[in-house]
Sequence to fold (312 residues):
Amino acid sequence: MPDVILNLLPVREEEKAAFEAAAPDAVHLYAGRRTATPEQFAQANIVMGWPREDMLAQAPRLRWFHCMWAGTDKYAGVLPPSVLLTSSAGINSQSVAEHMLAALLSLYRKLPQSRDHQREHAWVDVGNLKSLDGAVVLVAGAGHVGSAFAKLCQALGAGCTIGLKRTVGRPVPGFDQVFPMERTDELLPQADVVALVLPHAPETVRFMDRKRLALLKDDAVLLSAGRGSALDQEALAEAMQAGRLWGAALDVTEPEPLPADSPLWDIPNLLITPHMAGGMRLESTRRNCIQLALENLRRYYAGEPLENLVSR
Fold:
């Protein structure tokens, strides 16, 4: 009986031939996240995309699930241990890194405050500004996104880029130095920019808590673009309302959407964006997604190790 591949990726008509060439003996089904049926999941040996958890649980024949995003924590407990799980980590690294850089430079140049003055039709000099030239940039989460962001900072003259990783084995592009997460408290007081690009995991919840926020320089900038759970938002609001930090930019919050009564909305030097740094907003991200899925499909049928295999 041939394998059945249920493809929920953003595949264009002209790209379907490439998937069918990579697995010529399989039956290929194409659907959207909202249009895939229980019958399709019941048939599938391979699922590619971002299905609802309850739908994926209706795939008793499943042998491999390829997630179209980096984060796979929502599927914890849904997949049997025998099912291979791969992620699409890295496909939107450039998109998220560029967003983080844009937010950082906006804060350094006080563009949010200038926009507020523009709405008031007020010509106001916002005073002193900051530059990345010579800055110490500390990135918690020296993976694909962290590496891409660090490279951009280096290109603009950052004095030192430091990465934090759970395990340190070899150099990471973009970073002058890489240290284990246990060195966080020692390194935070040195940083002019602190960027959080951490996944959601038990060990990352409230990673940037009240104690660590107190270790930051008074004129540091904090960026958060991984998962909202990594940051103690109440502690951040209190610190910034007390006049600490040059600014902060949050693309992720907890919960999402951020409640309308959150004090974060009203902090002038805090920039909030609605989890828009990544996603499929860039065509390059979509292409990366398709290319990674195709490469893994080729590897699967060639009996080669899969890229971005998630350990469970």
User: Anything to note?
Assistant: The first strand starts at residue 4 and ends at 7. DSSP finds ten helices and twelve strands in the chain.
